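Reviewers of the previous submission asked for a worked example of the structure-prediction workflow described in the proposal, so we include one complete record here. The input consisted solely of the amino acid sequence. No template or homolog information was supplied to the procedure at any stage.
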Amino acid sequence: MKGWAMYQEIQQLRELGLNKSQAARKLGIDRRTVSKYWEVTPDEFAQLRQKAKRREKGLDRYERRIVGWLMEYPDISAAQIHDWLKEHYRDYHGKERTLRRYIKKLREQYGITKHIAQRQYEAVDELPMGYQAQVDLGQIVLKNTRGELVRLYGVAMVLSHSRYKYVEWSDKPFTTAGFIQVLYRAMEFIGGVPKEIIFDQDRLLTVNENFGDVIYTAEFERFRQNMGFRVYLCRKDDPESKGKIEAVIKYAKRNYARYRVFDNIRGFNEGCIEWLERTGNANIHGATKKVPADVFAMEKEHLKPIPILMNQPENSLTRQVRKDNTVIYQSNRYTVPLGTYRPGRQVILKEKGETIEIIDEETGELLAQHRLCVDKGRLIANNNHRRDRSQGIDRMRTQALVALGETESARLFLDGIRKEKPRYTRDQYQLILSTVQKHSPSSIAEAVDYCAQKGLYSAVEFRTAVEYFESNRARQASCVLEPTCIPLACRIKTEVRKISEYASIYGGMHD
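From that input alone, the workflow returned the following structure tokens.
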């Protein structure tokens, strides 16, 4: 039921005295839909439908791309297409609900059906902040850049309260040691250790179920004791007891991983982190109706601090350098010198007292040293790791100084610009250099002296002064060469006399 028929049914049931819940049950629709149209007038409902049509019409520009995805991957979800549109089109800001309606119409129009396997889950009670996380493993088969099929192995962790997620992939099956490293990185990502973690029974963790007295592998038991969390182990064939993580691993496979072309594991994991920031932790959760990242901002304060792994020599850890030349450690980003990043580059982190050292794994070179930050989500940067723009500015100043004649006024003028307009120094110097090329040296010298004396530290003021002195000099030159430069008001007409008048004057003087 939809459109005007649904609206009229809602209004009729309202007039009969039914409440919203009763009307929803009667019509077999969601109570939120009833609430949306409960007090809407016919004119307002018509306007809402018109707005919806305009929004869906705006999606027509993406129709060919969406239809192509639907035809190639018939069972793709609207949520995944929504994420792909955000990934491929920066100007796309549509709502997922509108896109879902639009995709439904496209499926009907082009006859693209979707087949979904149904699986039942039991609801899990909500838990306090920082109390529980759930972990599970999953697999997916993708095509690589050569068209070959490859199998990827994923580990997902989700905080039960906020639904904040972490997902990591491997192109090789996990060993116990590798799985423990992923768990540690997941805890670094969420910035702490929960009191309890739910796991599936897996050979990576357990040796024997032992009728409830579970025997863990030695490596995992050592890790568990070191990190200080309790383990809740699911019974076999009991997915309902960890429904949240079952949903997360499925979400990661269907919304991020499925239909992607696999190139390399590092790039795939970097893309997954970007997906988590863009979609996985940024979209409103269907059950809680809240954004996981927003709730996590409060929940992370309830997590226990992360201890250092005891089996790491000298408290050292291996980390990958990110594209922005940072390394993540205990939920903070520490900078390394600009240019350190290259795909796959690894560094070693060592804690020494209140500092952390970042060392190149291949050469052993000390790349950076920072004070450890006890906060979370911070960027800790050294000033010398920033892009060094001063050398380029210095070169431009030297060029401008030579062009201005290397006078004391020129030095004062250029230094004044650099002090008063530090963000625009480069642009100012470039304008000065272009101005010098178009005018005479004498006008340039006069303009520099004038700006320096008046404290006008601006390339625009300099250009205006140069143009003034240049035009003034041109006027003076034209006055010397052409008499017509004398203004008409100042011109005097000379009277012309006859020669006899001058002769009579001179003749009278002799008498």
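The longest helix spans residues 459-481. We consider this example representative of the routine output the project will generate in years two and three.
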